[in-house]
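Before drawing any conclusions, I looked closely at one protein's amino acid sequence and its backbone structure tokens, quoted below without any editing.
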Amino acid sequence: MPPTVAVTHYPEGAGHATRMAAIAKAIEANGGTVRMAGGGAGTEFVALDYRAWLSATDPDALVTDDMFAAIAASRCDVPLYVLKHDMPGLYDDLAERTGARFHTRFQLSSASEFFYPVVWPESSADPDRATRVPPVALDGQAPVEDGPDVVVVPSHYSSLSRIAEHLDRQGYDVLDVADDDWEAVPSLLPYIRAADVVVCSGYSTIMDAAVAGTPCVVHPATDEQDAVADWLERFEVTGFTVAPDPIDVLDAVAAPPPAPNFRNGATVIARRVLTDRPRP
């Protein structure tokens, strides 16, 4: 009998849902059975009460990017696999670093394996016992014909609509996924792949751009996004330009960076989880 793997996502922003849906899809493609749950902005694409749900589902393993699901797994004695990119070493601010250290230490100590999906090279800030994997994106949808010049993707905490309007006035064909006329889709990857450049704030879209091979302009809006942007600049990661101010975004779109080139980490994670086969 194929193993049953529970997959859950953090209830903040649809990007958390799509990255975990990518892993769920890869698990199914490699012979596993998936039970998926989550909340927040991703609920449209995916169900929730983690301890009761895990007890009822009785999975062979849980893969999650949600700290609360990780706690529930430890209490239900379900083998845990964690996906997390915001390590303590990313942060200069002491409070942010302390919070990230707490989350990371708990999940490192509880997880059978801790997956670290990154676009920057290995460094001394990588936590011990974390497994580096390529960026994770939900792939496999039909390609988009006649794609836009620019895809603009705000995060849960950012607004990029004024930037999208400026780009539109400059003559670009712009897809702003925050526009009222935009109908949400399970994955933005086909649209990002079809575009010349993507403008975003959050790490999920950064991973999408990396897998799609589309140049990416990063306009950070939170401490975590600033930390990610700092690391992109520090390591001069090919395919990404950091634009702190709106005018910088417009300049970067006019002269985007070279295309990134990354494979998708979803299959790497799926095969590792299924190979472990934590329970007979």
About this structure: The first strand starts at residue 4 and ends at 9.
